[in-house]
What does this fold into?
Amino acid sequence: MDAAFLQARIARKTVEATDIVGLELAPLEGTSFPAFSAGSHIDVEIRPGLIRQYSLCNDPTERHRYQIGVLRDPASRGGSVAVHDELAEGQVIRIGAPRNHFALVPARRSLLFAGGIGVTPILCMAERLAQTGAAFELHYCSRSPDRTAYRRRIAQSSFAERVHFHFDDGDAAQRLDLPAVLEPFDADTHLYVCGPGGFIEYVTGCARTRGWPAAQIHFEYFAGQAVDTAGDGSFEVMLASSGRVLTIPGGRTVVAVLAENGVEVPVSCEQGVCGTCLTRVLEGEVDHRDNFLLDHERAANNQFTPCCSRARSKRLVLDL
Ligand code: FES
It folds into this structure.
């Protein structure tokens, strides 16, 4: 975790839907947390050595608390289950300062899409857009009403009428008709989507095929994408400062081999989501496996996330 961590007390832990809890975090020292913008996330140290990122979902003008929502996902790497089973009201934990890789862009109109627990940053965006009087609509897709977090909060909000719920178990009339929502395309509408990988790919793919430019499509994954690692071979990394060459075998990450050899690269999510480990690449071709870099940043081939990304070339020269 970033050295600039904050102490936070779990002021409230609430059940927001089936398998989803909300945590309200209060500052321990002083009376306010650092300011944040809609779309921000924080690192949460669930227990020593277990750090995960969660989007802030409260009103971004608030300083007296941070709110996060966490889905229990037994298929994840253990963070969400630990939040559900191990964290309790009154407990003091460490968190990182807010960071934002999913910021709102000034636009005439915004289209927000949330898939399941991906609603957390989207809800924060809706709060912000409503406050500024901006035009927007929010499409919130989930499996069923009982698995839909923050329904009551949305119903009581000033923007309730702009939120459209779409339940997988509901009738056909209420399903998301994405092509219709994405038409007509105009140059001053921005689209934001957060949710499971398949949901993000569906929404962004549909927008692209309708001519939406990449600059108007914004998304944030909340988990690393599944990558077939069966064919991974070894490659080398050279440290530019010393000329030292290390071999990265198949099945091991660059950060793990670097750490073993005394070269510490800061990490947080370790699954290509947060960007903490971003490292400059001076030579070689990267095999990008993250969900952090944008397409044009990948194409530039001058940085990568060594927690998960690898090399297409025999060697990468790193600015380390
Ligand atoms: Fe999060 Fe590498 S540690 S992207």
